[in-house]
Known about the structure:
- By secondary structure, the chain is an alpha/beta fold.
- The chain has one domain (about 1-195): Aldolase class I (TIM Barrel, Alpha-Beta Barrel), CATH 3.20.20.70.
- About 35% of the residues lie in helices and about 15% in strands.
- It is globular.
- InterPro entries: Aldolase_TIM, ThiamineP_synth_sf, ThiamineP_synth_TenI, TMP_synthase.
Amino acid sequence: xxxxxxxxRLCLVTDPGLxxxxxxxxxxxxxxxxxxxxxxxxxxxxxxxxxxATALALKSVLAGTxxxxxxxxxxxxxxxxxxxxxxxxxxxMPPSEARALLGPDKILGLSCQTPQTVRAADVTVVDYLGLxxxxxxxxxxxxxxxxxxxxxxxxxxxxxxxxxxxxxxxARHQSDVHTSGADGMAVVSAICGQPDVKSAAQAxxxxxxxx
Length: 211
């Protein structure tokens, strides 16, 4: 679990639109060079076959780095590409079903927005919780009401699993994430589409770890 907590420190969630200039794969390569510790492939509009192809390309980039690849909302793609795990939301398949498909050794993350969903998370099935959104964000327009840092702190206090803060976070928020007790933060636009992706990732590392 300590390894997973470290991996959650800075999670890059990909956005193909924001990454258009250099592509998702090159964005990930530069971001990992800058200190990203986990990569979540998210592409809401891609087919499963396209996600598998991207995941395989990302696995090549991540080989030997120790940075895990997580697939968002597509268990089929995660299993077909033999990714390190998957991340699902409250409206996706039940975590128990996702676990059965993934197998016991893969990482499974679950998004939680309320105290009720945090308390309901099965620690024998799920490995970590994505908590938020802390702020509203244009990269995910169907998000729940933002919880702010007070709400994040409360959700973390209820969690029995490693946690990663999500939703509109930037490098300047790292101390607040640390204060909340979360193990790390997931970011999209703070790295994807930035003029210098590696430097954008390094900005988080330069502010010190979230844990």
